[in-house]
Amino acid sequence: MPFVTVETMPTPVISAPVIVASGLTKKYKGLAAVDGISFEVAPGESFGLLGPNGAGKSTTMRMVGAVSTRTSGTLSILGLDPNRHGPEVRAQLGVVPQQDNLDMELRVRDNLIVYGRYFGISNRAAGKKADELLEFAQLSDRAKSKVDDLSGGMKRRLTIARSLMNDPRVLLLDEPTTGLDPQARHILWDRLFRLKEQGTTLVLTTHYMDEAEQLCDRLIVVDKGTIMAEGSPAALIREYSTREVVELRFGSDRNAEVALQLAGLGERIEVLPDRVLIYADDGDAILAHVAAAGLEPVTSLVRRSSLEDVFLRLTGRSLIE
Amino acid sequence: MTHSTSSGQAAAPTLAPTRPEPEQRGIGSLYAGNARSVVSRGLLATRSTNWIIILSGFFEPVFFLLALGVGLGSIVGSVQTTAGQAVPYAAFIAPGLLAVAAMNGAIYDSTWNVFFKMQYAKLYEGMLATSLGPLDVALGEILLALLRGGVYATGFLIVMQVLGLNLSWTALLAIPAVLLIAFGFASLGMAVTSYMKTFQQMDWINFFLLPMFLFSATFFPVSVYPVPVQVIVEIFPLWHGVELVRGLTTGSLDIAMLGHVAYFVVMIAVGLTFTTRRLRALFLD
């Protein structure tokens, strides 16, 4: 049977995963951008892909979004194979791409209506939906503005509003807040959090650990096309890092040298070009040791472990370079 | 995790009611039967385009007609059509310019405009993330270009009527003929453009258009050339368009006109096939 009809579409049971990837691989000219990754996303879950630029996050998102054909492995989105049912899968997804691709020739509200019509939604229904979503994106007063006149944060919110025009069952967000100022990021997080509360399944990529900690119930840490670790942000931090981290700066030429004298302190020491990190459950105790040893850092800081530390532990590299 | 909810009152929109059900589709992922949404997007976007550029495309052939047809024509006298009928010079070149008007309108939209949307505006990337297929996008954009070609040509046909250059009632059939010609140029134009990566490559399109405009029996019968040159001219599409339209506006019908129609049908099929294939390769890798 060459195509799926509405009647034969499997209706997923509430608890059945909405996305199942197994051994998912994408090769470009023999080079693997995504190298055999497996994960599942449950309905209503907020799932993150955390990793540096070039880790294969966007490629994974494109395969999940049914705009890129996988090289091997299996992938099921809402029970359908995106390779065979591209349009049917895309009809049920909302996509927020890494770079805004809003229609610059159309005004704000028309952007939403026209996008809705691409899904076959009638003009009238699209208009109603557009007004509802402009309200949600806090852009009602900009309905008639040109897209060019919007700030970066507003454009992003418009892109998110646009992705909701077809009432998607899964929302895919690729680096949703990259390039935004802190205030715009918080507004955006707030909107995404509301969607999450309403039960929308979110899948997002990010290289910001604070974003992952704020929004993701569960995440995978991706590097060089493979999964390094999987779990909730708190569990990952518990498993791969200590409770606290001491950051010491001795000046870029002295960090490595001083680190030798710090050996043995805490559970683990990482030497970065600009600072030395000491992982320990009690940061203040470590600081006291450092002072007692007569070492005088230019600056010192005790903080809680973050996903950044998890990533450093797993790959030996910083998340943002 | 606590989160501020004070920054806005609007609740997230409720889910489910208007979600379109996936439809049964004959050719799978290529076509969703929704090219009209792409056309209506184009019409909406035209509101913000530069109308002077659009109008200049219409006036260009009118100026040629007045300068060459009326001016130069007063010295030339009459010229023989392919079917052997002698017609005034202005009535000879007017259908040629009509075919050119259709070509220009179709080419403008399907080359530079498409190039910009593809390379800079990322418009098609956005469209293909929805349930549209590449054939919807190709067909929609080509229909839009065809529409502009059709508007130019219809306006020009009215100018011809006013100047008394339509010699037969069959001139009415020039309108569908011109739409066919515009469709052909728009499909091939978009197909070629989809392979272009830089502005320099885009200039190659003009390199083809100008000689085609000058030498495709637009201003003088192709019989003035030696046979090998005639063959070369007859390979290019504009000659077929000019001959088809000239037969209809002068009323000197010829069985060869069916061949011209067939030429454009093939051109449309080839253009659509390559455009669809290319859009798929570019945006649905």
From the structure above, extract its key features:
heterodimer, A: 321 residues, alpha/beta, Rossmann fold, Alpha-Beta Plaits, four-stranded antiparallel sheet, disordered N terminus, B: 285 residues, mainly alpha, two-stranded antiparallel ribbon, elongated
Map the helices and strands.
The complex is a heterodimer of chains A (321) and B (285).
Chain A: E1 19-28, E2 31-41, E3 46-50, H1 57-64, E4 72-77, H2 86-90, E5 93-96, H3 108-118, H4 123-136, H5 152-163, E6 170-174, H6 182-197, E7 201-206, H7 209-215, E8 218-223, E9 226-231, H8 233-240, E10 244-249, H9 255-262, E11 268-271, E12 276-280, H10 283-292, E13 299-304, H11 307-315
Helix pairs in contact in A: 3-4, 5-6, 8-11
Chain B: H1 35-46, H2 51-76, E1 78-80, E2 86-88, H3 89-119, H4 123-127, H5 134-162, H6 174-193, H7 199-215, H8 227-235, H9 237-250, H10 256-283
Antiparallel strand pairs in B: 1-2
Helix pairs in contact in B: 1-5, 2-3, 2-5, 3-5, 3-6, 3-9, 5-6, 5-10, 6-9, 6-10, 9-10
Question: What does the model show?
Answer:
Chain A is of the alpha/beta class and 321 residues long. Chain A folds into three domains: 1-92 and 169-230, Rossmann fold (3-Layer(aba) Sandwich); 104-162, no CATH class; 242-304, Alpha-Beta Plaits, CATH 3.30.70. Helices cover 34% and strands 25% of the residues of chain A. Chain A is globular, with a radius of gyration of 23 Å. Chain B has one domain. Chain B is mainly alpha-helical. Chain B is elongated, with a radius of gyration of 23 Å. A two-stranded antiparallel sheet of chain B has the order 1-2. Chains A and B meet through α2, α3, α4 and α6 of A and α1 and α4 of B.
